[in-house]
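User: Please predict the structure of the protein below. I'd like the answer in structure-token form so I can feed it into my own downstream comparison script.

Assistant: Understood. Taking the following sequence of 121 residues as input:
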Amino acid sequence: MPLPRHAAPALSVPLLSGGTWTLADRTPETFTIVVFYRGKHCPICKTYLSEIDALIDQAAEQGIDVVAVSMDGEARARATLEEIGTEKIAIGNGLCEASARDWDLYITSASPGTQEPDLIA
């Protein structure tokens, strides 16, 4: 489990904007915020992502690096991005189960008969 004053677990995910976001490569002036969201199916997450997107410029001015990550594949993550109209927040996708467990995220199985991914962190 990640703890204050301890190194964070490794994290590397593809970005919808292209390339790969890797925590170890980040060098923000202040710190990095990693926002894990449940995915396209979560209306609460979409609200949070929109609110965070509106604050990205303020965060950057304060030297804060922000990324939002889910286990959704690229197509679902891109659909989420289009639905909420985010413009600035970096969106990572394809978080693997092992990384989700390293970060001690709560993992659930999709509800039967839904179009959700098999696992949701």
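That's the full token string. Residues 43-61 form the longest helix (19 residues).
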